[in-house]
Amino acid sequence: MKVLYCTSEARPFAATGGLADVAGSLPQALRQRLIGCRVVMPLYEDIPQELRDTMKFITSLSVPVAWRRQYCGVFEARAGGVVYYLLDNQYYFKRHGLYGHYDDAERFAFFSRAALEMLPYLDFHPDILHCNDWQTALIPVYYSIFYANNDWYRGMKTVLTIHNIQYQGKYGKELVENVIGIPRSDMPILEYDDCINLLKGAIETANRVTTVSPTYAQEILDPWYSYGLDGILRQREWKLSGILNGIDTVSYDPATDPDIYSHYSADDMSGKAENKRALQERLGLTQDPEPALVGMVTRMVSHKGLDLVKEDLDRVLQETNIQFVILGSGDWEYEQFFSALQERYPGRVCACHGFVPELSRKIYAGADIFLMPSKSEPCGLSQMIALRYGTIPVVRETGGLKDSIQDSGDNNGNGFTFKSYAADDMDRAIHRALAGYGDKDGWKILMERAMRTDMSWGRSANEYIRLYRDMLKE
Q1: Domains of the chain: residue spans and CATH
Q2: What pTM, to 2 d.p., does this model score?
């Protein structure tokens, strides 16, 4: 079985968010399971020169973009044992920033068409075209219109993964013929809610649609989560499923992580205490092993649940002896709130603005409890990383948080959960976690259970392989 993984970003080449982590990890896990998986992505200006120096030129071709044709250079690179194809066009990609340009629709229409056009020039004939988010959503559309009946392409299957349904690629109808380049008779494939919607087109035409967690696959059938696409998703529910993402368990390993203060493992957790002490010292918190240290690493925006934190955290600090640290940036109102909280509780609260990767790892390793009360969370990686470091998550039951964290009230879970998006419910979950923290023997058992939870990409890769095989049987 051969898979072409089509993505607008992938580590280590270019990244803005979680998609790059997935595209840098899942293909490796598939290859380890003897699946021939290669990746295609744009050759952005922002890709570091040291990575460009490893690329070799494969071929060039002319790609149709509506009524015109554009040059495409195909370069090959390797990372983690995986072959990457990077598609070059300086007009579209020789600019800073991956997204947010006035002509993004045309840029990714070119990329989607080029990903299909390049295939006969390669020594690689994929069975599966695995596309991701709106930037590659035109690949299943183009395949169904222009390629499905071509002898060389016939029999390929397409799958679309929705990482966050909020971003859909919505544009005016005038782009259909002049930019997207499909016949007006095929416009209904993309048309939705009085505009064209690239994600909707892929939902229509792909053989399968997946999301990044089983619960999120169900949530986006609800108007509250779907950003307007619930109607078409309910019509195509038979092709929808959710597969929970994983994390890079080699990179995120407290036994070897070079960014933390002291190494430890599920078999020997003694080093975790030193991580807490050293983190307290760095952040100006009182160096005391007794108070529970509650951590957050997050974007400071409302859908991350910061409205609940803003409403409840002051009360928790008054009622308990906890310490609290947050790392992140975002909306001014939240940054100001946490800065003011730090002033009111010196030695107990630290607000770190911005994103410092090495500090985030020190927080994962040094905190006792990790708070993640999201309003919505398609998958979430932070709670998985926290588990890996024996830091017990307190999460709201939404999306991937619900699928990865089970409440330990029955003595079998790996964290603490709450259902309603309400400060009182979060408060109760925090107090239950603090009561658990007070039972040192029981807390050690919970930490070990958390660290042994399988959040690897291997689990996810096996589910994708089952999905691919089911598609090919049809």
Answers
A1: 2-246+458-473 (3.40.50.2000), 271-453 (3.40.50.2000)
A2: 0.94
